[in-house]
Predict the structure.
Amino acid sequence: MSEYFRAVDPFPLQGSQNTRLAPFYEALRSQKLLTTFCPQCALRHWPPRVVCPDCLSDRLDWIELPDQGTIHAYTIQDTGVPPGFPRPLIFAVVRVEELRIFTRLVETEPGQVERGRTVRLLPSAVGQDPEGDERYVPTFTLARGGAGETSLVKIVTA
Ligand SMILES: [Zn+2]
């Protein structure tokens, strides 16, 4: 079990027996990011919903989002980090198409983080849900060779 940070867990402590959002967590286990889509008003939600906030319909579909996005904003927390968490913690708003996802960047060097860089989904295991299934939250890491990445050419002279 890795670090658990409640602020980036949209629906804490929900198991398949007590939430209609279980497909979201099941998909994270297989490295997929789902959200809900309202066919009535053609609106994609983030975080996923059980009722459309626009038209109040509860007839929502699950759709898969791309597993990559770009860093829209970020902050690096180096002090006051809770015990058991790595220092520093990197929080980011990741833009996945038109959606903005508040998340943590994991397995990432703070010096490499900048706006516009491409990140990819890397869900973090945070223990078990009330039914004993492995539970993940959506976190991201820097993508290698992504569209937003600066390319560096190393010139070697003899
Ligand atoms: Zn709707």
Observations:
- The longest strand covers residues 68-77.
